[in-house]
Design goal:
mainly alpha
Length: 115
């Protein structure tokens, strides 16, 4: 029972049970670009605050804290790819779905509470 698909496929679709998809590569591209670009802007901002204005505001501390706290979300999302995140549910084995829901409950909860 756990070896079957986690969901019923649409009509005329044959499930290919796997935990990897070609669409998962877009996560690497987006996560790398977004983290790199926001990190570069953060460094420019901090350089301006520390060396040009020589004044640190409380908002700067929260900007740094926000960037640091966003990194675990990126790591959790990356770890979720190993268990089938980004794969259609009819292509995912039921046991892999259970592992996915166990490994990344914060990521899933955050995604589901938005709707």
């Amino acid at each position: 029972m756990l070896e079957g698909p986690a969901g019923t496929p649409p009509p005329n679709v044959i499930p290919h049970l796997t935990t990897h998809s070609d669409d998962q590569k877009w996560y690497y591209l987006c996560a790398s670009l977004c983290t790199g670009i926001s990190g570069a802007f953060l460094l420019v901002h901090l350089y301006t605050r520390f060396f040009v204005f020589r004044k640190v505001l409380p908002a700067d501390i929260f900007i740094i804290l926000g960037f640091i706290l966003s990194l675990p979300c990126i790591i959790i999302a990356r770890h979720s790819l190993n268990f089938g995140a980004g794969v259609h549910i009819w292509n995912l084995k039921l046991k892999d779905l259970i592992e996915l829901l166990f490994v990344s409950p914060l990521f899933i909860k955050q995604t589901l509470t938005r709707y």
